[in-house]
Amino acid sequence: MKLKTIFYVLAGVVLATACRNQPQGNANDIETPVSVQEVTKGSISKLINTTGTAQATNSVELNSEMTGYYNLQTNGRTGKPFKLGDAVQKGQLIIRLDNAEYVNGIALESKKLSLDIAEQEQGKQKELYEKGGVTLSEMRNTEVRVTNARYELENAHISLDKMNIRAPFNGIIVTLPHYTPGSSVPQGSSMVGVMDYSKMYVDINQPESNIGYVHANQSVYITHYTLPGDTLKGVISELSPAISAETRTFKGKILIDNNKLKIHPGMFVKADIVVDRADSAIIIPKNVILSNRNRKYVYIVEKNTAVIRNIITGLEDEDNIEVKEGLNESDNLIIRGYETLRENSRVKVLK
Q: 70 has which bridge partners?
């Protein structure tokens, strides 16, 4: 009886030991679903962000230089009177002010005759001088009269041209006050505003801490919320070395290439100044980087296993960061599902 009892006790011990040695669903055997991205090389820039209002490099408001009757001209491209938004070419007549009394006062034809008479007299004096009939001084006096008559005629043309409001450069009509056709417009009245905004500029103020990073001729990326995914190119054209004692900032100017007229005058734009750049660098998304005290690390996949790689980073932009050490090209970087992983966790790569 005692032997039988001992047998059952030993059997129970063996059975208990066997149960303890059975697999109990080890966490390392659970495959965590993850998504991966192959590590590649690319370019990345260090950016300093600023904002400002875009302004046209060429802008003018033209006023009447004389009193006259308003006559808005026809746009040859449209066959209709000029209006806001019309493109104009340098020298193109936009508005004419008619004033017969003003024209008569200039006496253009009289000044033409005066020049003709002075030139004829000069010719005669030259012939006489060559024959000894007049002195050199007398001949030179006729040259003075010709010169004066020519200046008076040129001034008459300049005065007459004040009746014409012309575009001073290629641009767009941005202001055009309304006047009734044929109505009298006083001298000094606003006539038309013209802008050329194929080239624009932005005045910027940078904090004192950026003076060692921001330099003239650096490239700038220009964006606006109305242009999703579209970026214009700019450059730092001017930079003041002086720091304002009140604001602790220094001034600068950005020139923008706006040939397609995507940015409009007065728009509030974002400017990203490229202060450094790395080419052929390993670039990864910033949001996959984990940290523990002073250590930065990511997970990669090797043989369906999550492996920790400690990394040293470099330049970064809004979304990506340069990895200087710790990753190799073609590594399979885990970009989703990494939050709950541990070293040597089993993973299942999702397609």
A: 97
